[in-house]
Structure formats: C-alpha cells, structure tokens
Amino acid sequence: MKVFLTGATGFLGTQIRRFLEEENIEYIALSRSNKEDHRFIQGDLLEPETYASALSECDKVIHAAGEVAHDEESAQQMWKIHVRGTKALLQALKDNNSVQRFVFLSTSGTIAVSEDSDYLGTELDTPPFPLIKKWPYYRAKLFAEQMIFDELASRIKLICLNPSLLLGPEDHKGDSLKPIQLFLDKQIPLSPSGGLSFTDVRDVAKTAITALSKGNDRSKYLLGSCNLKFHAFYQKLSRISGVSAPLAPLPKQTHKVLGWFPKWKNIGETVGIDLQREDLILAGHYWYVDSSRAKAELDWNPRDPLRTLEESVHFLQQDRFADFL
Question: Among 1, 61, 121, 294, which is most exposed with the fewest C-beta within 10 angstroms?
Fold first, then answer.
C-alpha cells in the first residue's frame, strides 16, 4: 500500500501522517512549498501536472486539503481550494490506473445542521442546501463532495468521512480551536443559542487510516464524539480552565436577526470583543451528529470528549505561555 496525501501539513493532515508512519504505510505528501522530508513532493493541487507522476505510484488517496473561513469575503478562496482543487485532483485520476481507493475528508456540515434543537443528523439526510448556500465554506465542501460522488471513476472505491468540529492539541494556526480560544480570552459574554458537535482530530486521523481498507463503497460517515449546547460546552471549559462561563445564552432568534443585517460585520467591536457576525450565525444552529454507521462499519471508537477538551485547553494555555518566553 502507498498513499497519496493532500493537506499533509494541516491540523488533520499532520495527525494523518503520524498514523501512517506508526502503521509503516508508505506515503507521498503534496505540499506547495519545498520540504526536506523525502516523502513530500512540491506541487499545486490546482496543477495536476505537478503531481500526476507521484499519484501514479500510489494505490490509495487521502484527500484532506482545505482551509476554513466563514466570511463572504473568503467565498472565492473557499471555492478555489475545495471545488477547483478537488476537480483538478479528479482530472489527474482520469488517466490514472493505479489508484484503487479514495478517502475524502469532508465535514459534518454538509449534512448535519439544522435550526431544530431536536435534530440529530444521519448520513441518510438530504443536505440542507437552503442553509448551506449562505455559508462559503460549507457550500464549497458540499459541491466538492457531490462532484467526487458524481465524477470519480466507478473502479475507484470511495469513502467520505464527515467529521464534526475538530479539537485537540497542536492546532498551531488556531482555526479549529477558535471557539475555545475565544472563551479563554473572555470574548464570550453570552453563549450562542445553538449546539455543536465536536471530536478529536487524532481519532479522525486514525479513522482515515482505517478507511483505507474498511467501509462501504460510496458511503458517507459522520464522525462525532459529543453533541451539546454551547452553554453546556462553555461550562465544561470553565471547569477545566477556571475561566468564568457565560451567564446566559443569547436569544434563539439572534442568528436570524443578524442574517437580516449583513452589514453588521464586526458586531463584537461595539462591545469590545473579537466576535464576528458569521460566528454568531453559525453558532445559532444545531450541528448534532449520529455516528452509529461509523461505529458499525469503521470501528469508530472516539476517546472521552472531556479528555479532548482538557488537552485542547492545556495546549492553548501552554502555547500562549511560550509566546512570552
């Protein structure tokens, strides 16, 4: 087995590389910059000619490339990375006879999101496009996901992993741990009205390796460890960190009101906090997932979610302390 890996230097990709190495699985990792590590090749996902030769050496692909941004100003960048980048990779695979299996790292947000607090997303649900179409990142991921299912050659087995919010240590860019960092910085005076699902990045990385040999062809798998309301989420963080939890949740209709006033971009600045309009709109929804299929077919067995929160908080606290040294 030899794996072609995209997104190898990201929060998730770094953990995937570690598990590949632990399992002694050979891999070639695509990177835009030159790396000293012989397992990396320099190339651009948008330019198949820069990696087609390396791809022909591999029989498995893990496509984990991507960035996350929710503001409308980032819409073109999200489309470029997730849709055009994926289309280029699919183009490279058309003339490739070596790849037999394709593992795509998508997001639970292409399936499992609702305004209903009783909602629990499953893989059989219809994508909630009326919601997703307003959000650049989830919109782009949904189109990329649909394109892979439509265009990937039938001879190549496809597994689509849909993890919820990734938490855990070593998020050096801080994108995934932003909800925790905002809390530690006392930027959350009131809890958002919705609910989130989260999971540990290391458990998702391990499952990506499992998906190289297990899972049903053309299947999606929701991966989550814990579903809970934001108010309960911040109470757990408070007990771990010692930072006071928000006193109360925002009104349920807050996200709708913000949707009516798109110019309220940096709404948090009016009260001296670093909170964006898009953050509040997304956090006014419910992102709960049911991972029963992954447990049955991919041996999904995530660690205690409290452990994930503890290690995430400690990482952020240590990382900040290191900045002062």
Answer: 1
